[in-house]
Amino acid sequence: MTTQPVRFYQVGSFAVGNRLLDPDQRTVQADRSRSNALTSGHRACQGCGEALGARYVLDAAMRATGGRLVAVNATGCLEVFTTPYPETSWQVPWLHSLFGNAAAVATGVAAALAVQGRDDVRVVAQAGDGGTVDIGFGCLSGMFERDDDVLFVCYDNEAYMNTGVQRSAATPPAARTATTEAVGPEPGNPFGQGKDLPTLAMAHGVRYVATATVAELHDLEAKVERAMGVRGARYLHVLVPCPLGWGSDPSDTIRVARTAKETGLFPVYEAEGGTVTSVSPIRRRVPVTEYLRLQGRFRHVVGADGTVHRPDIVERLQQMADATVERLGLDRPAFGEGGPAGTGSPRTGEAVGTGNPRTGGPAGEGATP
Amino acid sequence: MLRQLEGSAAVARAVAACRPQVVCAYPITPQTHIVEGIGAMVKAGDLPGCRFINVESEFAAMSVAIGASAGGARAYTATASQGLLFMAEAVYNAAGLGLPIVMTLANRAIGAPINIWNDQSDAMAVRDSGWIQLFAESNQAATDLHVQAFRLAEELSVPVMVCMDGFVLTHATEQVDVPTQAEVDAFLPPFEPRQLLDPDDPCSIGAMVGPEAFTEVRYLAHAKQLQALERIEAVGRAFGDAFGRLSGGLVSPYRTEGAEVVVVALGSILGTLADVVDDLRRAGRPVGALGITSFRPFPAEAVRAAVGDGARVVVVERAFSVGFGGVLATDVAMAVGGGAGRVSTVVAGLGGRPVTERSLAGVIDDALRDRLEPLRFLDLDDQVVARELARMAERRRSGPHAENILRDLGGAPLGPAAGARPTPERRAGAPGGEGR
Ligand SMILES: Cc1ncc(C[n+]2csc(CCOP(=O)(O)OP(=O)(O)O)c2C)c(N)n1
Ligand code: SF4
Ligand SMILES: [Mg+2]
């Protein structure tokens, strides 16, 4: 069994646990009156990051709205594993229509609530990466552009998992999927492709955009809470490892998600109206091989023991990570380790927060409540 | 009150009088004037409590309507042709979920070749989606059917599509009696959803259903359509009582008593047909017409009763099933029995080609003389077809059909239909006009 000793550098983050925090900063999940919006008994695989992410997102949204919430779901793993009728895991009113239309359906629900004077009830739309960046992008872009009152959450497991791990436009370079097999001179997914949805959301001027991973659940909850404090279009992009599709150990889901962030491959940040307002700094930078070796989908690149089979691919991925770290200024000294926390947004030069959206930057202010 | 109105404007007013709460629109000729009309009313503040949402595609239009309906709002949209196909997945989904959305379909041909004019191929393409499909014979019928559509949809929790021929109806200006707000309010109760997204009573809508229950769920869609057969008649009668004019119902027979030939059709062509029947009756020839208002659910019994036992049946269709023939005719043949010996299909008016009284009279004359084949393409220019077939036989790389034929026609008119092209109000492609 893999174990992870508590490390001291985590002090000052929320990783150590709730008991060190002020009561108002404690996680929703630690609250006995949490809503269990997505309750137990669903059919997700062991260690499913998507199930974990969805539970935290919806419970946080429930808390933020006093339980006045409707969820709209795209087709995908989350939809399938939660509603094998007559069982349903949803304790919130929940609507699934199609694979590619969750954003538009959510627009319709929000409009219906508004015209009935029921706009105390808020709307969250959820989809996998396929339902967000690929087939759902048209509807999502329309919802963004119209500034409809919807929080759209993408659970990004970087492929079409529900249909058996095929490549999506969110699949990272070199990753093996069922449609980008690890064969030939350039095994896995090609370099130089794919979409960066948070950036695209920012280009739409979306009021609030945030990325998060299931490794930092408190951060995720806080971002949901902040998002629910804003009216209009909002976008949350959550990295959710998929043990089945990524070939990772189910007990490693959190570690994989954390490593994705700590390598710089998956940047965690917030943006308002198209401008980055805070970044979550990398506390302990690790080389990409640390991330790759945890996952079967990169086995042709790096062995489980860290043996590099394809140094050329490792180098390209490391360059990608470095560029992202540089672009967003992620490589600041972690708070709790002496350095000043979050000294500035690389984009705007504005002061940014500590990386904790709860206590940090100016997000939410100025937005219509 | 009678007004001189464009069909689209009349429909827009009727829909507005139904107090829709969410209207989503994506433009496509010949539907545009309807949603433009409603949009203007919302913008002017004449429709308080209604949201008009400009969406980015028809797929989104129907999806917004799905969300709105499940959220408890009366939802409406309109489309045509390519737009209907673009939203097809959501069209099926709306019916599968049992959401009482009302949609106007301004019937238009489907490309390729792209064509903005009227036929009914679009409606036929979603025939099996689970929507109730009502066809309007006139702009008065189109106006009245919308009011009935909301009531039907909401009584049964089934979506309803009101089909009206593009241009022929949507762009025709004639006298229409537009229902007043008070009349509609008395006829159409507020929307009370059967299923609702409600935090006070949460439910899951749209769950995965496996083989253990799928047949039953689908059967229920059918059972609701069977109920609709009764409700369409009843709502039509109630409408007649309330508004003092006959409208709706399942079928509308015209002089079918003692007819030896009955011509069956959907939509605006029935006006022309009635004139042809009158002429032929005057000449002592025993013919009648049967308009089908409700195509889905298909009123087999009413059709059988209206046609009677002996009459020969000619089904005039503005669509066909490529590789087979009639779509409506298949249903009619199943209803009346006797097969192809008794029921002929006449494919007419594709892509806006005018269906003339003379051509129709010719067809009926052939039917009376027992000279009508099982499948005929009315006014088909055989020469044009023969020339293209010859070109294909001649060489492998013969090129695209449509462009070849247009070139042939542009050079020298080959046959009778060559010059007979419809003129929509404004030319396609003209700035600000009816684009594509
Ligand atoms: C229009 C349409 N195309 C394809 C599918 C098949 N399909 C269902 S779920 C799915 C994959 C979902 O991938 P993603 O959105 O990333 O969610 P995940 O399952 O990975 O969480 C696909 C391809 C479908 N249901 N509808
Ligand atoms: S395949 Fe992946 S996303 Fe789907 S349930 Fe399993 S772990 Fe979760
Ligand atoms: Mg996915």
Structural description of this entry:
The complex is a heterodimer of chains A (369) and B (436). With 369 residues, chain A is α/β, with parallel strands linked by helices. In chain A, 30% of the residues lie in helices and 11% in strands. Chain A has an eight-stranded mixed β-sheet, sandwiched between helices. The model of chain A is unreliable at 8-12 and 334-369 (pLDDT under 50). Chain B has 436 residues and is of the alpha/beta class. Chain B folds into three domains: 2-243, Rossmann fold; 251-377, Rossmann fold, CATH 3.40.50.920; 386-428, no CATH class. Helix content of chain B is 42%, strand content 17%. Chain B has helices at 7-17, 32-43, 58-70, 81-86, 88-97, 121-125, 139-156, 181-187, 214-243, 269-282, 300-307, 328-336, 339-342, 357-368, 382-394, 401-411, and strands spanning 2-6, 22-25, 51-54, 75-79, 102-107, 132-135, 160-165, 173-177, 204-205, 251-254, 261-265, 287-292, 294-296, 312-317, 343-347, 375-377. Chain B starts with a strand and ends in a 25-residue tail after the last helix. In chain B, 52% of the residues are buried. Mean pLDDT of chain B is 94; it is low at 415-434. Chain A binds chain B through residues 67-70, 72-73, 79-80, 83-85, 88, 90-98, 100-101, 104-116, 118, 121, 138-139, 141-142, 145-146, and chain B through 21-22, 24, 49-51, 53-57, 59-60, 63-73, 75, 89-90, 93, 97, 196-199, 201-210, 213. The complex binds thiamine diphosphate, iron/sulfur cluster and magnesium ion (MG). Residues 50, 75-78, 99-100, 127-131, 155, 157, 160-163, 168 of chain A line the site of thiamine diphosphate (TPP).
The CATH superfamily of the domain at 28-282 in chain A is identified as Thiamin diphosphate (ThDP)-binding fold, Pyr/PP domains
- The gyration radius over C-alpha positions of chain A equals 19 Å
CATH superfamily of the largest domain in chain B: Thiamin diphosphate (ThDP)-binding fold, Pyr/PP domains
CATH class division of the domain at 28-282 in chain A:
Alpha Beta
Distance between the termini of chain B: 34 Å
Strand order of the biggest β-sheet of chain B: 3-2-4-5-7-6-13
The radius of gyration computed from the alpha-carbon positions of chain B, rounded to a whole number of angstroms, is 22 Å
Which structural class should the secondary elements of chain B be placed in? alpha/beta
How far apart the termini of chain A lie comes to 47 Å
The percentage helix of chain B is 40-55%
Average of the residue pLDDT scores of chain B = 94
What general outline of chain B do the C-alpha atoms trace? globular
Identify low-pLDDT runs of chain B: 415-434
Estimate the global geometry of chain A from the Cα principal axes: globular
